[in-house]
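User: I'm curious what two different proteins look like when written out as structure tokens. Can you demonstrate?

Assistant: Sure. I'll show them one after the other, since each token string lines up with its own sequence. Here's the first protein:
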Amino acid sequence: MSIFLPSRILALQAIRCSRRTLSTTLRWSADPWPLPHSPQHLSNTQTPSDIPPPTPISRSGESKETLHARLVYQSRKRGTLESDLLLSTFARDHLRQMDETELKEYDKLLDEPDWDIYYWATGSRTPPERWQKSSVLEKLTIHAKNEGKVVRKMPPL
């Protein structure tokens, strides 16, 4: 009987050790990549109000065709997929009908941070006073609602 006792003790110790080593790490307290429109994402992407609006690059002498081509490209290459999809389909559908003043207003809008534009257009945040009465942002908001339930995909460059 004494022969079997040490082997039984070793087997029990092995079981106890394996239980202890299953997981000794602490669980993450928050998701490092929260989903858009979640409260955590809304709070993490808030632009501080004390930061002045960005100063646009001066582009004197730019033709309307060059301005249009640049805005199409900048609408497509934003940095976040949500903004890329929203702004590139908006540019495809609306830029041709805009006059030069609206194109310049849209150009100024593109100088704003991506998540701000996205959340203003989707109605998750109220835009700052400088964009409250913007006809371009109003068109973008209507486009973002997608009332026709159109399946949108990235347009070709």
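Here's a second, unrelated protein for contrast:
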Amino acid sequence: MLIGMVAQFTATYCMFKYKFLQDHIEEFSAHTAQVHNNDIIAVGILSMVFPCLVLLLLTVEYFLLLFWPSRLYPAWYNSAKRWLFVFCVAGTLATALASTVVVVSHSASITGVDQNTALQYTQIYFRPPLTYRTWPQNIAWIVLLWISLLPTFAR
């Protein structure tokens, strides 16, 4: 669970860095340049939502077992809990796959200005880079997300 939280924090850091890059370039260019990086922001949000749901469900289950170990729950509750776990694990797997595809094969782009001006903007604001796979924080986020899936599947 802790690795999943670290993956969420790393995804949040990466997402906000790309959002700040977009804001800075657009403000510096007087809103003539647009940075297109919605794909990394979208998978960053997904990387926060589904692992958080898994963490929440496992925490609730832990405290229920801790405080009421001999309590028997109704069949509808156990069935709903099982389906909710399946949904969250499938969502986490889809998030890991989508995040991997976006980081490995996509990159941000700058439009609205000529190529030389876009190059100057990327030299001024060089972190994070427009190519997602060249930034180590993105790679760390993906690796941590995949590592956090192992105990999730073990559940």
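A detail about the second structure: The longest strand covers residues 34-36.
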